[in-house]
Design brief:
Two copies of one chain form a homodimer.
Chain A: H1 23-44, H2 49-61, E1 64-65, H3 66-73, H4 77-89, E2 93-97, E3 105-109, H5 111-135, H6 137-155
Antiparallel strand pairs in A: 1-3, 2-3
Helix pairs in contact in A: 1-5, 2-3
Chain B binds a DNA duplex through helix 2 and helix 4.
Chain lengths: ~160, ~160
DNA sequence: ACTTGTTGCTTAACATGTTAAATGTAATTC
DNA sequence: GAATTACATTTAACATGTTAAGCAACAAGT
């Protein structure tokens, strides 16, 4: 094979791919430019990305146990413990032990929490719509589909 | 329009997309399953993802200033300051003020740092190859291309 | 019932993410 | 050329990421 195939142009002398053409960095950059657009709204309302993610998942899933919530929100258990403390202190969520299984913590949004989401939802949806407009709805769908394929391929 | 188009099936009552079909969470999950495969190697060699990323970029770019490095490695300046301290203490990189511009810090790998990368490169390349095998080389290329498109669309 | 192992969550310790402010240096402006 | 502005990096403070260890509650096997 010739010394400079397409794939070779993406590698260095040690067999490492060029950093900008690697999944870890590309995915990180992509997430970064997307989140940039949401940060102003989140900061204006004194919530972090992660707190917002936790509340979004709770709104979507209803009351759940902490493990499920951590998984869906992509947050590690130790982080969730701290985030729950913060959000509970703010009155946005409520947690209590599972009667049936004393190990589990059941978590749910309070009315105040749901109200908070309702207020921010329009802004959030609009920001996402702007992103969709710039990238193209179909491109996003394709990207999400490919990511799902990646998840299925690697999680097995 | 009918009340349940394809796009509507991805939204909730507030106009928010279902969390698992949003870019921020999908990109995060994707990155997570990819990094899972690298973590054992990194942990075994006592480097964090970010430290490894910094060294990879330095190996690729040669001596550069801190801002360029931070940008390429997707690391914020304050984090880079700390990471540089760690890596310099370990003897993997060296930093010194730019003679021409007293504000800039010029950073480069030491011979020990380059040697460290050479030792890990084969393992890293092999892990990446396994990932490629599971996802498919062409699928990864497509994914990277779409991410580049996303970056161009949103960075402008 | 007792032991053993497992599970779900928490704590602890350290590294990084994130923003704002501080510092020192370079470029502009007047 | 002194004052101002902009820039590169650092520091500080708090939130989260990450791993390992701890603890209490369940599950299984004996």
């Amino acid at each position: 094979m010739a010394p400079n195939t397409h794939s070779e142009t993406h590698k260095d002398g040690f067999g490492l791919a060029r950093t900008h053409r690697t999944l870890p960095i590309a995915l990180l950059r992509a997430r970064e430019v997307v989140m940039e657009r949401f940060r102003p709204m989140l900061a204006a309302n004194d919530v972090t990305e992660q707190q917002w993610r936790v509340m979004r998942v709770l709104e979507e899933a209803g009351e759940t146990d902490a493990s499920f919530l951590a998984n869906k929100a992509c947050i590690l258990a130790p982080s969730l413990t701290r985030i729950m403390r913060t959000l509970e202190a703010r009155g946005f969520l409520q947690a209590h032990r599972d009667e049936a299984d004393g190990r589990r913590m059941l978590v749910g949004l309070t009315e105040e929490g749901r109200s908070f989401i309702r207020e921010l939802a329009p802004q959030s949806a609009q920001i996402y719509a702007e992103i969709e407009a710039k990238i193209g709805d179909q491109n996003i769908e394709k990207l999400l589909d490919q990511i799902e394929h990646l998840l299925q391929a690697l999680e097995a």
